[in-house]
Structures are given as structure tokens and as C-alpha cells.
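so the lab meeting is tmrw and i was supposed to have these ready like two days ago... anyway. pasting both below. for each one the top line is the aa sequence and the line under it is the C-alpha cells. i havent really looked at them closely yet so no promises
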Amino acid sequence: MAQLVTFLLPALPLLALLLTLLLGRYPGCEAIVRLSERLSSHGGSRHDGARQATLRKPPRSFAPSGGLLIALGLAQRPPPVAA
């Protein structure tokens, strides 16, 4: 019996979430709606516009980086074209 309890104890939160979803309840749905309403109401603030003007994005670099840099480093010249 103790082994069964030890096995099921970590699974209880998952089973509780599954049960609420099967019953048609979605935990956290109201919190997501409230957060989205709060974020949308702050969209027209003057402070945000001033902050966007001061925080400009750096110019985009077209230098190869990451996987492309490795690929270009490992690339070899193709064979010559047969004439």
C-alpha cells in the first residue's frame, strides 16, 4: 500500500488538472483575461511612446553568425565545371 501511495503522490496534481479539464473548467482562464485587459488598457500611454523613442533597436548586422558561420567555415570550393 505504501508503494502505491508513493507512486500516486507525485501524480495527484496532474490528475486534479485532468479532472478539472474534463469537467469543463479551465484553471487560470480568468487570470489570463484580466492580464490581457490590463495590458491593453496601458497601450495608449504617453510614457510608452517616450520610452520607445529613446530605446531604438541597433542596426541589423548582416555578418554570418551561429550555424551559418560554421557552415561557411566548413564549406569547400565546388568541383570545376567540365568544359
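ok protien two:
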Amino acid sequence: MRWGDMRESENVEDRTGMPGGGFPLGGGMKLGLGSIIIILIGSLVFGINPLEMLGVISGGPETAPPQQPSPGYGPQTPPAPGAHPAPKSQDAEFSARVLGDTEDVWSAVFKAGGSRYEPPKLVLYRGGVRSACGSTSAAAGPFYCPGDRSLYLDTSFFRELHDRFGAPGDFAQAYVIAHEVGHHVQNLLGTMGQFDTEAQRAGPRGRNDLSVRLELQADCLAGVWGHSASERGLLDPGDVDEGLAAAASVGDDRLQKQQTGRVNPETWTHGSSEQRTTWFRRGFDSGNASQCDTFSGGV
């Protein structure tokens, strides 16, 4: 993928230099319904068991304001006048450029629809991070927090994507970011608010079904961005296969099979490998967000 030709976003906050993510985990806080819904919405995009997620998150509901920086947390101190800023890591630059490209694509889509796209912030961190959705360990994987409209990514996940999930390649990594941006698009369009309302009315199985539909739509929206990148000549041969492999590698059925040796569709929150690749492909082939309606009919 020719990511070096993509515009670099300025909406990136790099916290990777903050030891331990700048916060203690635990603390005995209880999770309310709002926090559980946020876990379903913004977290677990890559198949982490919700029970595992509950063990590493603590904090308030999604409506809580962003936490104020505590000592050793937040933006790094600007360099002194005349000093050279620390060089960016390749992962940080890659993430900023992919984010910048999604900004350009979705800005054009929203403008064509008569509205304005408000880009999210991307927070890069190591080990753990605090957001408006609570304090989160990197074990939860990349996630989007509606409460502060930010994407959170521990870039070491890129290596995990290769080593644990068997999905190498830069387009596979770009898919991770584009999927989270898809959740931001859902938030701007009001889809997440509708999900929140319906999920509170539904039972456990109903909430799981809604969560699957939400995640599959984000996969489709990631495909819409991929279509645009392909049309502009930014993809190399094999990139689409990398994206499809990444989507398949984090299907609930595959992850359950790996973890327990059994598959239980009733507990899925993100969809099967086949579902995830199907919806990513639909977005990629059409390049049209209107083709990403996962809430009408079967998935």
C-alpha cells in the first residue's frame, strides 16, 4: 500500500512516551449498563471475550466527560525553542497517514450528502489508556470511544495482528484503523445512539445481535474507504487480500474455535469470519456507504 502518499492527519495524540499509559488499572470501580454498552460498541472490535474486557476496564458511562490529564499523562511537553522534536515511529506515521486519508474520503462523502464531517482524534498509547469510556488495558485491542469521539490504538497490536491473528501486511493494519473510523461515522450519523436505545430494551441475545450488526457495518464502511484508496491508485496487488484476511482472522467463530475449541453463535458480538469478509467486500466493491445497511434483514 502506498501509504507514504497519503496526507498525514494532525488529529493524532501520541502518548506512547507515557510510562504505563499514565494510569493504574483496577481500583474496584463498578461498571454500569452504559459502560457495558460502550464495551459492546467501542471495544472488542477484534473478538476479545467481553468477560475478559470487563476485567480490564473501569470507569464511568459513555456520557462522562473526558478525564483530565493526571501527572505524567496527556500530551508530551513541547520541545524547547530551537530543539528538534523526537522523530516519529513508523507505526505512528503510518497511523497518522491512514487516518488523514480516511478524513479526506469521509469529508467528501459527507459533503456530497449535504453535511460536514467532523474527524475523530487518534490516540496512540502503550500498555493502557484512560478515555471518556474508562481506563482500558491494551489487552482490549483497538477501540473507539463515543464519549470523546476518539480512536485508541496501542500500535503493538499491529505485531499481534501478524503473530496472533495471522494477518500480515500494511493494508491489514489500515483495515484496523478504518474499522474504528467506521464506528466514528456511525456515531456522527446517530447509529450508535439508536443502538444504545435498542440495546437497553433487548435481552442478552438481542444485544449480541445488534452488536454484530454494528460491527459488520463498520467493516463495510472500512471497505468503502478501501474502495476510494484503490480508485486513487494507493493499493498494491494483494492488498485487498490482506484486508480480507484481517477481517476473517477476527471473526467470532474463528476466535472461539482457537480459544475454546467450540463455536457458539449465540454469544457472538462481532460476526463470523464469513460475515466480516462479506460486508468488508460489499463496501469495497460498491464504494457506497448506502450499501452498508446491516440492520435491515439478515446478515
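from a quick look at the 2nd one: The chain has one domain: 3-62+88-291. Residues 3-62+88-291 form one domain. will dig more after coffe
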